[in-house]
Amino acid sequence: MTAAQADLQIDRPTVADGAELWRIARDSKVLDLNSSYSYLLWCRDFAATSAVARDERGEPIGFVSGYLRPESPRTLLVWQVAVDASHRGRGLAAALLDGLAARTVAEHGVDTVETTITPGNTASERLFTAFAERHGALLEREVLFDAGQFPDGPHDPEVLYRIGPFAL
User: How far apart are CA 31 and CA 73, in angstroms?
Assistant: First the structure.
C-alpha cells in the first residue's frame, strides 16, 4: 500500500453512494454510462460484490462494481472500475480490485475474475493483466460480444478477460 492509499478506506457501497458513483462513471468519459437509477440499485443489490474507496472525509473517490455469475457462482464478473480524476495514478484501481477479490474469495469462494474490455482501453488492459500477474493466475482473452451484436449503434467489441483460478 502506498502512502497515498494509507488514508483511504475501501468498503461496500451504500445506496447513499449511488449518485456519486454515477458522477464518477460519467466523468470518466470512457465507461458506458448507465442510468443513475442503475447505480442506486447496484449499491443496494450488489454491495457484497462491489467496493468503494473513500477519502479521509468518507467521500467516494472510486469504485468497482461486480456480481457473481449465476451459472458460475465462484466467478466474480467485474462490471465497471472508475476512479475520480483527482485521484488517478496512485494505484487506487488496483487496491480496489485486490480488496474486492480478497473479500469475495473469503465470503463466496471466488476463484476466478472476469471482465470485458474494449480494444484500446490500455488502462483497463494493464489493470487486469497486472492483477493476474500479482496473483499468479492464468489470463485468457476472447471476444465475448462482437461489434455487430450491439443494437444501439457503433460499439467496439467487448473482449472477455478470464483470470484464474487463483487463491488469495
Answer: 25
pLDDT tens digit sequence for 12-50: 999 999 999 999 999 998 888 889 999 999 999 999 999
**C-alpha distance from residue 167 to each of 11, 40, 105, 109, 132 (Å):** 21, 31, 8, 9, 11
Strand order in the sheet with 9-11: 9-11, 51-54, 60-69, 72-83, 112-117, 158-163, 139-145
Q: Please name which of 162, 166, 49, 62 lies closest in space to residue 116, comparing C-alpha atoms.
A: 162
pTM given for the model: 0.90
